[in-house]
Design goal:
Blueprint lengths: L13 H18 L15 H4 L2 H47 L26
Length: 125
């Protein structure tokens, strides 16, 4: 009969990994002195230090997710207002470029950056 060595799946997703870490730490604490994890090298894997930070890390993850949602909502609201503003700026630029066609530097009075250096000639390869 063939036996499998078994593959341990550890998610790279922070939320799933934190849930797993909490389960591991909870079992370790529940087992106390008989926990199999007491055999780990405490200089490399110190559950006494790492374990209590899991809840803090989860709280920070939850906060980040909440802020991410608020950020996405703010971007949606911004984008709804942005397009007409962008069109206004472009239209103003086009109008002023026409009005001051012979004096384009006057657009800088309106806050526009005017680059009057000649375009570089493209070299053929």
């Amino acid at each position: 009969m063939a036996t499998t060595k078994g593959r341990v799946v550890i998610s790279r997703n922070p939320e799933e990994l934190l849930k797993l870490a909490d389960k591991v730490y909870t079992k370790h604490v529940a087992d106390g002195a008989t926990s199999d994890l007491n055999c780990l090298d405490s200089t490399a894997y110190d559950l006494a230090k790492v374990g209590p930070t899991i809840a803090t890390c989860q709280d920070l993850h939850d906060l980040a997710e909440e802020l991410k949602g608020k950020m996405e909502e703010a971007y949606r609201k911004r984008d709804a207002l942005f397009t007409p503003i962008e069109e206004h700026v472009k239209g103003s630029s086009a109008y002023l470029k026409g009005k001051y066609a012979k004096q384009p530097k006057k657009l800088s009075n309106w806050g526009f950056e005017v680059d009057d250096t000649p375009k570089a000639v493209k070299k053929k390869a």
